[in-house]
User: Fold these one by one.
Assistant:
Number 1:
Amino acid sequence: MKQLSTKVTGNGHGQDSSYFLGWEEYEKNPYDEIKNPNGMIQMGLAENQLCFDLIESWLAKNPDAASLKRNGQSIFRELALFQDYHGMPEFKKAMAEFMEEIRGNRVTFDPRKIVLAAGSTSANETLMFCLAEHGDAFLLPTPYYPGFDRDLKWRTGAEIVPIHCSSSNGFQITEAALQQAYQQAHKLDLKVKGVLVTNPSNPLGTALTRRELNLLVDFITSKNIHLISDEIYSGTMFGFEQFISVMDVLKDKKLENTEVSKRVHVVYSLSKDLGLPGFRVGAIYSNDEMIVSAATKMSSFGLVSSQTQYLLSALLSDKKFTSQYLEENQKRLKSRQKRLVSGLESAGITCLRSNAGLFCWVDMRHLLDTNTFEAELDLWKKIVYNVKLNISPGSSCHCTEPGWFRVCFANMSEDTLDLALKRLKTFVESTDCGRMISRSSHERLKSLRKKTVSNWVFRVSWSDRVPDER
Amino acid sequence: MKQLSTKVTSNAHGQDSSYFLGWEEYEKNPYDEIKNPNGIIQMGLAENQLCFDLIETWLAKNPDAAGLKKEGQSIFKELALFQDYHGLPEFKKALAEFMEEIRGNRVTFDPSKIVLTAGSTSANETLMFCLAEPGDAFLLPTPYYPGFDRDLKWRTGAEIVPIHCSSSNGFQITESALQQAYQQAQKLDLKVKGVLVTNPSNPLGTMLTRRELNLLVDFITSKNIHLISDEIYSGTVFGFEQFVSVMDVLKDKKLENSEVSRRVHVVYSLSKDLGLPGFRVGAIYSNDEMVVSAATKMSSFGLVSSQTQYLLSALLSDKKFTGTYLNENQKRLKIRQKQLVSGLEAAGVTCLKSNAGLFCWVDMRHLLDTNTFEAELELWKKIVYEVKLNISPGSSCHCTEPGWFRVCFANMSEETLDLAMKRLKEYVESTDSRRLISKSSHERIKSLRKRTVSNWVFRVSWTDRVPDER
C-alpha cells in the first residue's frame, strides 16, 4: 500500500523549478566581499534590505517592544498565553492604519475584517482553501511569482490557468487575454473561481494601471467570481504615481458594500515593505464575513507569534515612524532601481520601466542564441555559473516569451550591485555579437529618450490621462 | 455557482462542539477575583501557568534573548531576514536536546530530523497531508482532544475512526479495540494509514503503559501503517514513573533504524510544558527522509517567527535553566493535581488516577439523571451556568461512556481552584439524592485506598511489572 501521500511523492511543491535551483547554487558558493569575492551574487531574492537602520534606531529608542514589556513592566505572561486566532487587537488596528497610510488614506480598512496569517504564503493558501474546491481554477496573469504554484495548488488541489500577457503592451492585462484564459479553463473542464493578481506585480515591478483594475473588477462582476489582490509590494512604490489599490477602484466605482465588494479580497504582508520575512506576518482582508470567519479558524494552522505581534503593533502604532519609513523607503528604492537600470543600460540591456517592487524585469532576448526557452535556460546557466549572478529566468515565472529575467536590487549593498553590473557588462561584451548589440543598444536607448512616443519596450504607467500606448 | 468552498460553508471546523461553546460562555462572563467574583471559572483550558516566574527570572537575567541581541550586539537584521524553512540550527539543536532531557537522555533526537511548525496544530495537520490522501483514515483512541477533528480532518479530507476505550480498564488501549477499529474502517471503505495517540493522553492525564506502546508498535508493524505519537505533554509527567516515549520502545525492541521506525513520527510543542501557546512553537520528528523533506517544505505555511526561535534557542540552550525548570514544573503540577483531586473527593467525586497533564479525567457518572449523553449535556449546562465552572464534557472528546469530564488545574491560582472546588461541593450537596452519595462516596474512597487490588475506577500505570489489572 502506498504509504506516503501523493503530496509527498509528487513534485507539486514546485521546487524542481529553476527559481529554487538557482537559490541552491547560490547557497553552495555565496558572495562575500571579504571571504568569497568571486562567489555568486544573489539577485534572485526579493528582499528589502535598504531600511533596516530606521527600524534598528526605533528599536534602540523603544526597548520595551522587543523586551516583552509595557511601560517598563513585564507582560511576558500575557503574551506567552495569547493564542487567540482573532489576533492582538492593537496589532490589527495598527496594521489596518498602516495599510491605509500606504494608500494615502483614501480608503479605510476595518481591523475586524483582517485575518492574520504566518506570512502571505499562508494567507494565499488559506484563501484558496476558502474559495476553491479540488480541481477549481484561479486565473493568474503571467509572468507570476513562482511560489504560487506551491502556495495556491499543492495542498489545496486548486489549479492555475494563466492569463497570457506579452511584451507587446508592456505585459498589461487585456480583456482579450482574460476571456481567453477563462475559455481555456472551460476547455480543460475547470470551474473558474476567481482571478488572482499581484499588485504591484512580481516579477514585473509595475503597478496595475487604473484601466487594468477597472477591467478586472468588471470581469469578476460579469463572471460572478472572486478577485484576490496580493498587495504585498504596495509599500514599495517609488514612481511618480501613487499606488492604486483595488480598494480605490471599488470606492471610485461606488461599489463599496455591494455584493461585488464581498468577492474582492486583499492579501498583505510585512515581508517586503518592512523587510521582515523572518517574522512571518501576513494578512487577509475580506468584506465577506463567512470568509473572515473561516479564514480566522484556519489561521490556527499558522498564527503569528504573539511576541512578534506585540513588537510590530508598537512599531506600526508609531505614526511618526511609519510615515518617515514609507517616505525614506520609497526614496532609497528609487535610487537603487536607477542604479540597476543605468548599470544594465551600459551593458546594452534594457528592462521594463518599473515604478515599484524590489526588482526589475530585464530584457535579455537579444542575448539568446535562439528565441526559445532552451536558449533562455542556457543563458541563465551561463549567468549563474560563469557570471556568477543568481537571477530568475522568466520561464520559472511562466512568462510566455523567452529571454526575460527578474533581477533584484534591494537585497545587497551599493558596492555589490555595482560589482554585479560590472560582471554582467564584462560578460556581454565578451560575447562577440553581444559587443555590437551592447554599443548599438546604448545608442538606441539614448535616442529613444528623446522621442515622445514611447517605444514598445517601455511601459508608461505614469499617466492614466494619456491613452495607454505600450 | 457555489462561491465559497465547502470547507467554509460546512461545520467541519468542528467549532460547533460544546468544547468551544463552553469557552464562549466563559468569555462572556469570566471570573475575576476582584472585578467579577461570581463569574465563570475557566477549567476547560489546558494551559500551564505554574512556572512563568522561572522564565521571567531567566528573561531578566538574559535580556539579549528577547532584545534581538547577541553578546550585546543587535542581530535584528539577521533575524528579520531569516526565513529558511530548515529552521534556526541553534534552535533545532536546543529543542532536540530538550526533548532528550525530558526522556531522561535515554534516546537521542537528531536535529536534522526535526521540522519546525507554528504549533503542534500545524504539525499534526502537516503530517496528515504527508501521510493521508483525502478519504484515508487514522485510528485514534477515545477519548481524544476535540481539536483533532479540525486539525486532522478539516482541510486534509482525512477521516478519524475511533479506537473505543472504556473505563472498565482505565481507558487503556487493547488489542481487540485496535482490531475492531481497523475492521470498522474497512467496513466504511476507508484505507487506514495509521494510528495517532497522544502520550501522555489528553484528556485522560495518563501516560501510555509500556504494554500499550508495545501493542501499538506491533500493530503498526503487522498492518504496515504509521504511528504518530503526539508527545506535547511529555514534560508534564509528575507521577513516580518516568515518561516512556514511543522512541524508548523502538530502542528497547531494537527497532531503531529499521523500516518500522520510519513509520513512527513524534509531534512536540512548547505550548504545554513551557506554557507558551502564544509563541507558536511546534515540531515534527520523523525518521523518514521523504516525510522530513516534504514536511519541511510544507512548513512554509506555518513557520516559527525567527524572533521567537532566537529567544527560545537561548532559553533552551541554558541547561541549568532546563534542568531546574523540568524539576520544578513537575513538583508544582503534582501539588496542584493533588489539590484538585482532594477537592473533588470532598465533593464525593472521583477521577481517573493521573500522572501527567494539566487536567484530570473526572467521573461524574453518579451525578447523571440517566446514563445518557443527553443527561451529560444537562449536567454540563448546570455546571457551566449554575456552578459557573467551564469544564469539558466527555462527549466533546468522543468518549463512549457518558458522565466523564475533563477538568483543568494548572491555569489558575490556588485560591481560584479552591473556590471552584467549594462551588462544586456546594452544588453536589445541594442536590438531594446527591447528598447521600457524597457522604458514602467519601467513605468508600477512604476504604479503597487500603486495598491492594485497585478498583476499576483507578488506573494504575505506575507499575508495569505488575500485570495490568484495571
Number 2:
Amino acid sequence: MSMVDEPLYPIAVLIDELKNDDIQLRLNSIRRLSTIARALGEERTRKELIPFLSENNDDDDEVLLAMAEELGVFIPYVGGVEHANVLLPPLETLCIVEETCVRDKAVESLCRIGSQMRESDLVDHFIPLVKRLAAGEWFTARVSACGLFHIVYPSAPDMLKTELRSIYNQLCQDDMPMVRRSAASNLGKFAATVEYAHLKTDIISIFEDLTQDDQDSVRLLAVEGCAALGKLLEAQDCVQHILPVIVNFSQDKSWRVRYMVANQLYELCEAVGPEPTRTDLVPAYVRLLRDNEAEVRIAAAGKVTKFCRILNPELSIQNILPCVKELSSDSSQHVRSALASVIMGMAPVLGKDATIEQLLPIFLSLLKDEFPDVRLNIISKLDQVNQVIGIDLLSQSLLPAIVELAEDRHWRVRLAIIEYIPLLASQLGVGFFDDKLGSLCMQWLQDKVYSIRDAAANNLKRLAEEFGPDWAMQHIIPQTLEMINNPHYLYRMTILRAISLLAPVLGPDITCSKLLPVVVNASKDRVPNIKFNVAKVLQSLMPIVDQSTVEKMIRPCLVELSEDPDVDVRFFANQALQAIDQVMMTS
Amino acid sequence: MNGGGEEEVASSAESPQALDWKFAQVFGERTAGEEVQEVDIISAIEFDRTGDYLATGDRGGRVVLFERTDNKDHGGHRRDLERTDYPLNKHPEFRYKTEFQSHEPEFDYLKSLEIEEKINKIRWCQTANGALFLLSTNDKTIKYWKVQEKKVKKVCSMNLDSSKAVGNGPVVSPSMSISPKPHMANGGCSEKSFGCSSNDFSIPSDGVPSLHLPVVTSHETSLVARCRRIYAHAHDYHINSISNNSDGETFISADDLRINLWNLEISNQSFNIVDVKPANMEDLTEVITSAEFHPTHCNMLAYSSSRGSIRLIDMRQSALCDRHSKLFEVQEASGSKSFFTEIIASVSDIKFAKDGRHVLSRDYMTLKLWDINMDSGPVATFQVHEHLRPKLCDLYENDSIFDKFECCLSGDGLRVATGSYSNVFRVFGCSQDSTEATMLEATKNPMKKQTPAPSKPSRSLGLTRVVRRGPENSGVDANGNPYDFTMKLLHLAWHPTENSLAIAASNSLYMYYA
C-alpha cells in the first residue's frame, strides 16, 4: 500500500471507493469513471480499469445502470475508436443481468459504441458478441441481442449477413415470450438495415410469423412493426404483405391488439397509397371507431384528426364524420373526452361549410356534455374553434358551459376552467367578458378551496395584464378591495395575495393610491396571520413604489408590526425592515 | 370423462396402479409435547416450475426456500433448465437453502386496520441469470423477491492505507476512517472541492502510475434475498391469490371482490380486470375465493366464487372482464338444500392442470375436476369430507366449516390431492378407470391411515358425471380416534414433474414420494 501524492488524493479516494461498502459512494465513483480513466491514462484504462469493471459486475442495479451509461461514452478514454472493442466485454455482461433497465442501457451504450466502431472491428468483435448473446443460456442475453442486429448488419460480409438473418429468425421463434417480444419490437430497426431483396423475403416471413404468435403481447408489438415495415416497403409490396395483416389485426380477437391498430393505423395510410387506403384502411378504421371495447374506441377517437388529415375531405365527410357523430354520444365518457380533445382539428380539413353544417352540432353537444372533462377538453381548444367559426356562433352555447364548469362541485374542474379564463378573455374580448365572466372571477376569490382562491388571485393578475391597468381599475380593483372586509381571515388573506400579484402589473401610481392604504390598514387586523402576511406583502411592494413612499407609509407600518406581541409577525416585519435597509444601502 | 379428447390421459393410464407413498423428509418436525408457535405455522407452499426449488411461507411473514439436492450433479444446460422437464429415477430430496423475512406486521392508520404479516400465497417467477425470483403476498401487499448467490467480497490493496490514516480498526471501511478530511468522500458536499482539484491538477497524458485499482478477492458466496418491487395499495379487501401469466411479464392478484392485473416491472399501477363489487354492498351475494391464470394461454384466467362457481375469463374480449366466457357450476338438486348448502359449496381453491384443459377445484366436501370444454358439470367428483356431513352443525359452531383447503394436481394430470383434518391428506387417481383413493397421514409413516381400497365405484358408461367415493368413515378415523379439527392440512403442493408431495402440517413440512 502506497501513500499518494496530495493532488492525486481525491482520485485515489475515488478509485478506492469503487469498492466501498456504501452504495452511494460506489455510485458516485462510477459516475466519475471518466476522471478515474484520465488519471490512469489510456493504456492502463484499457488494461486494468476495463477488466476490473468486467469482473466486478455483481453490484447493485443502480451501480450497474450507471456503469452501463458511463461506458457508452468511454471511447475517448480508452484511446479512441481503434480501441473501442475493449469496451465490449463489460457491456456484454451487463446485457445479461436480470434488471431490464440495466440491460436496456447496456444495449443503448453498445449501439452508441458500435455505430462509431471501424467496420473491421465490428466484424471481428461486435458480431461475435451479438452471436454469443443470441445463443445465450439465459433469456436475458437473447432479449438484449435483438436490439443489436441493426448495428452490425450493414458491416457484415454476405455470409455473415445470411447467418445474422437466420439467427434473428430463430430469436423470433424463441421459447420465451420475452425474447419474441424483444425481437418483435426491434424488427423495424433491423429491417431498415436489411437489403430490399431480403426484406421482401426473410424479414416479411419473420414478420408474418410474429403476427401469428399465440401470445397477445407479441402480436401487439408486431402491430408496431406494421407501420415501420410499411414505410420501408414499396407501395405495391406494402399492399401485398402488410395491408392484409393490418386489416386482420383490426379484427383481432384481442382488444389490446385492436387498440394498437387504432393507434397506428393512420401511419400506414401514406405507405400504402390513396387507393388501398380508401378500399381497406378506411373501412378498418371505421370498424375500430365502432369497436365494442371502449378502450379501442378511445384510441381510435384520439386519432380522428390525424386520420382525416391524410384522407381527402369527401372521404372524411362520407365515412368518418358519421362515426364521429356516434362517438359524440358514446356511452363511455372517456371516449367522448378523447374525441373532444381532437375534434376541433378536423375543422380545417373539412372546410367551413361542412364544419358549420356537421361538426358544429357535434361540437355543441360535447360542450353540453354531462362529464366535465369533455367540456374542458373542448374549451381548452377554444383558439382553434375561433379560427374556424368565429366566436359569435359559439358564445351562446359556450357561456352556459363555462358557468356550469365554474361552479362544478369538483374543485379540480373549477381549477382547470380558471386556468382557461385568460385565454377565453383574450378570445372573447373585453365587452363580452365584462358582462358575463367578471362576476365569476370575483366569486372564485371566495371559494372554499385554497387552490381555487390562489388560482383566482393569479387569474386577476393575468386579466390585468391582458386588458391593462385602466380596465383593472374599473372592473376588478374596487370589487377586490371590498373583500378585505370579509369576516373570515382566510378570505382576507386571499385579497392580500391578490394585491401582491396585481401591484407589479398596475404600476406605482395605482399601488400607492389604492393598494397600499388597504394593506397598511390590514396591519391592524386582529389575526396574526394577516399581520405577518401584511409584512410579507409590504416587502414585495417595496421595489414598486418610490423611496419616499417606502419611508412614509411602509416603514412606519413595519416598525409597528415589529413590536407586535406575536413572534411570527415580529419575525416577518423585521425581515422586511432589513430588506428596506439593504435597498437603502445599495442605492 | 367424455371419451374423445382424453388420449393423453388414457394412453398412459392402462389401469394405473395406486401409488405406494413413502416418507421422504420432514422439516421442522415437532417433538412430542412441543408447543407450536403461531408464527411458525406454514401458510403457503409452492414448487417452482422446474421442481428444483420449494418455497414455504408462514404466519410470521417468513419465506423459506428449499433446494433439491439429488440432481445437483445433473448440471444440464441452463437453457434446458429454463424449459424444465427431464426424467429422473431418484426421488426428489430437498435441503434447506435460505429464508428471509418477506412481510412485517403493519398498521394502516387511515383505516385503523392491522395488517397481518402472514404469507397468503407464494408464486415463483421466471428464473434469470442464476437468480431466483418469487412473488409473495400477505393480505394487502405483494412483493417481488430476488434470491441470488452473491460473492462475499474482500477488498485489499487500496490506494490509501486506511489503517494508517486512523491508526487502528481493521474493520473500519476506508471512507469512514478517513472521513474527517473534507475532500475524502467523493459523495455529498465534498464533490465541489473535488471537481476543482481535478481541474487544477493536470493529469499527464499517460496517466499517473502510482494509482492502482483495488484488488478484490472473493472466496465464498452467500445467498442474498432482495425485495425488488412492492406492489401495494391496490386492494381494499384481503388478497387471496396471486398468479403469474405465461407471457412472463404480468400477474394477477385477487381479493374478495376484485382482480387486478400487474406488470412485473411496474409497481405503481395495476389494472382492474374483474370487479364483482355491487353498487350496494347489501346486494353482495358472492365473493372471489381464488384466481389463476391458464398455464399456456396468456389471455385466459379462471376464478372461483363462494357460491361454488368457477368462471373462465378471456381478457381479449374487453378491458374490464365483467362477463365471463364460461361458467362452471354444479346445479344443486333443489330438494337437498339446507342451511349449510351454500357454505359448503364455496370453492376454496382452484388449480389448472398442466395441460391447461382441466381445472381442479376444492370445496368443503369434495374435489371436483372440470374439463374447460364441458361446462355442464365436473368430469369427476371425489368425496373428501362426506363423512363429516352429519357433523356440519358442530363444524359451523367451531368455524371449521370455513377452513380453506387447497388442492393440487400431479404434473402428469393423472392424480389429484387435497388435505383434510387429523393431519390426513387424500390422493385420488383421476384417469378414466382409476379407482385410486388413498388416505395418508402426515407423519413419518404415511400409509398408517391406508384402508383397503374401496370396491370399484359404480359407473355407467356414457355418464359424464362420475361420483367416486373414498372410504367412508364416520366420526372416527381408521384407528378409531375421533377426528381432530385442529390438525388440519390446508396447504400442499405436488412436484411439477414427479410423484412427490410437499405437505404442510402446522409448522412441519413433510415430503412424500411414490
